[in-house]
Amino acid sequence: MASGRVHAWVSFFGAFAIGIAWGKLTGDWGGAGVAFLGCWPSGVVLTPDLDTAEQKTIEAERIGGRVWQGYWWPYSKLVKHRAAFSHAPILGTAGRLFYLALPVLVASWLTGNWGWWATLPDWIRQGVWSAVIGLSFSDIMHWLFDGCPL
Known about the structure:
By secondary structure, the protein is mostly helical. The chain has nine helices and no strands.
């Protein structure tokens, strides 16, 4: 198992790989930058290790500490650490993104406004998908460096 520091460095170097690959394959260097940001900072902030109750990681200390830890505390109690759901590439990423989006989903439900996503400009919606691809790449690398646990 790699340490939090190793995972952070892997996300950092992987961000360059996904950014360059995105730019070369699509010619969209703006999307490449967003994929870079999705892989590195988002990969460190939305790490698969958010399922640990203590979250005593360098990542948690860098991003707002107790508020962030408090938000993820229920998630850490509901999801067993290194469970297939939380650590699996793509599936774990989707689960954490869903949990992160819960306040927006609840607000949409309470207000009955489900069409807000369609009103966003195309560049924002495309940027979200670029960031999700970058985050997924970071999670795949995290999983590999943990020895592919399932």
